Amino acid sequence: DAMVIQNPRYQVTQFGKPVTLSCSQTLNHNVMYWYQQKSSQAPKLLFHYYDKDFNNEADTPDNFQSRRPNTSFCFLDIRSPGLGDAAMYLCATSRDGTVDEQFFGPGTRLTVL
Amino acid sequence: GQSLEQPSEVTAVEGAIVQINCTYQTSGFYGLSWYQQHDGGAPTFLSYNGLDGLEETGRFSSFLSRSDSYGYLLLQELQMKDSASYFCAAIRDDKIIFGKGTRLHILP
Q: Does B48 contact A at CB distance below 8 Å?
């Protein structure tokens, strides 16, 4: 089945220790998104790629970076995680011109010790 | 600014009908989507309204009124598995702005 895959599902890191979360998709969608979701809150868009074009949200901290080496893969790098970065990180995709319907991966739950 | 307002919690009885309202204020608005999210799970797409009116998909229906900046999600014949959070999301430009979500509790 075509899908969005996120690894790992659970990630524990230490305060200040860089961490990378990964996302892959078999849907061949050209748009990929990274969201941060904290408990009982809405998903918050961090950035998205339209093909290789990177679009950063104005309020996304510099601590968050992303890479998309090809259509299928996208990575979220947190350079120096703080306690406030503990959250669920969701990757999503959409087809060109259909931003209304996004396909989400299962998420990675990040814990910062 | 951009904002979406929806109730934080709604409680209904199994087999009943429930309506979750959403009002929005956003520039460059194209339409309204609804997503369902179970605890610990990913959001899943339910419906999209690009035009005014009602869209029906099985037990779920969604409505949009652009003149009122208002929409709702209607769930019929509620089942226990419908217990989840429901997010309205405004579609603008090339991205979605999510509301804070409505937690739906279903009583047997």
A: yes
